[in-house]
């Protein structure tokens, strides 16, 4: 099992992850490995759902906080995605394992979508149609970034860098920030940009999301899309951009991200100079933070 951890962490380093991120993954995975070996599990391919559940119980008995356990689960998910990608294992034992509930400071009173509701919403659009493909890309963007409506409306083609999985966003007052994207979001954006958007745009249109006439999508248009797809998904509540933003934040915090890290991803700029320095992360550090704590559904 150690060999696979070595291979995985070398892969992370090759991908440009910071040394702190690589070390953090290794420490989490070695902790999990130590437990598995005490119960006679010596290969990642033989870890099943029940072994993961027993690991959770073991960590709870050690007095680990749910946020810490969720971080271990997140590390294991990333490892198994890599192992499946490399053909080293066939299945992911964490597929049916949910994150543990946590009390989310400053967000505990906010209603958020559950994972199955997010899945239903994302899968609601008819992606065989140009507008349905646009809607899927738009919903993926909301869930993957936590961006505000005004930010998504301002998003232009030259700010998208799907090869790097980032948006180089130029916000209000000319302030620039990096917004990481999930692999799934990039996949649907690429489909929309190559298949659907060329069928919709009539003239040169710099903005990413357009309406049925090929013109810049409006705020009212986004609300209409959310209502339509919420109904198509059979969700018994109003899905708003604010709800999707809260869901993005709650997912990060539940997976163990710090509130300071979440604020960095949201692009918040504190007025306190010393505090601002804590939130000044490099592009790669933001991507590391995002990949570690965001659930790519």
UniProtKB/TrEMBL annotation:
**What Pfam families does UniProt report for this protein, alphabetically?**
Phage_int_SAM_1, Phage_integrase
- Domain Core-binding (CB), by residue range, is 1-84
Question: Which keywords has UniProt assigned to this entry?
Answer: DNA integration, DNA recombination, DNA-binding
Record-annotated Tyr recombinase domain positions: 108-297
Q: Which SUPFAM superfamilies match?
A: DNA breaking-rejoining enzymes
What's an example of a GO molecular-function annotation for this chain? Answer: DNA binding
UniProt name for this protein: Site-specific DNA tyrosine recombinase, XerD
What is the source species?
Answer: Limosilactobacillus frumenti DSM 13145
